[in-house]
Amino acid sequence: MMISFCIGATESFLAEPLVDHTEGRLCQDAMPLWISDGLDAYGNALFSRHHVVETYPRTRKRGRPRRPKMVAWPLLRYGQVVKQRDERRRVVGVFKRAVFGDVPLHDIHTVHIERQNLNLRHENRRLTRKTVAFSKKVEWLERQMHFYQAYYNLVRPHRGLRQRSNSDGIVKWHHRTPATAAGVTDHVWTLHELMSYRLFINH
Questions:
Q1: Are residues 149 and 184 in the same domain?
Q2: Which terminus of the chain, N or C, has fewer Cβ atoms within 10 Å?
Q3: Which domain range does residue 181 map to?
Q4: What is the pLDDT of residue 64?
């Protein structure tokens, strides 16, 4: 499910607002497993948001007491997929590492977000590289991304989320969208339903 997105010049600039916006839309009782590439910006953003101060008890021995230090929140889980490149920027190796928390290495992968990036570039012309269709203004790119987010979550059936059922010996597949699988809605929306939906905002 496409929960949130941010538009910025660099990942270092948008890491903190992306983490804040994403966690604002998640259940407050659950801490998700965060996965990213080897960029340290996401780890720094998560640490600044979820850290505690570790203090040490005073001792009767002479000398200064140990300074308290900041450590990651025990429930925080974050892993990285780091790619090693040669002098030609070609990938020569990939390794995984758990940065915060006890994260099994087999749970650390970026295959889902890489596939999502491929879908974005194939289905949104404003994100296609080296073409005249790219957005010239951030405002219109942001509007297009909001529309695509709603279309992806509510209208576009995801093949990996379909459910199989057997009725009278006949195998049927029920198509679902990410919003349907997450329980946000009970049916697959049509494009007409999405475009004509009336949104009420209380100020």
A1: yes
A2: C
A3: 132-203
A4: 66
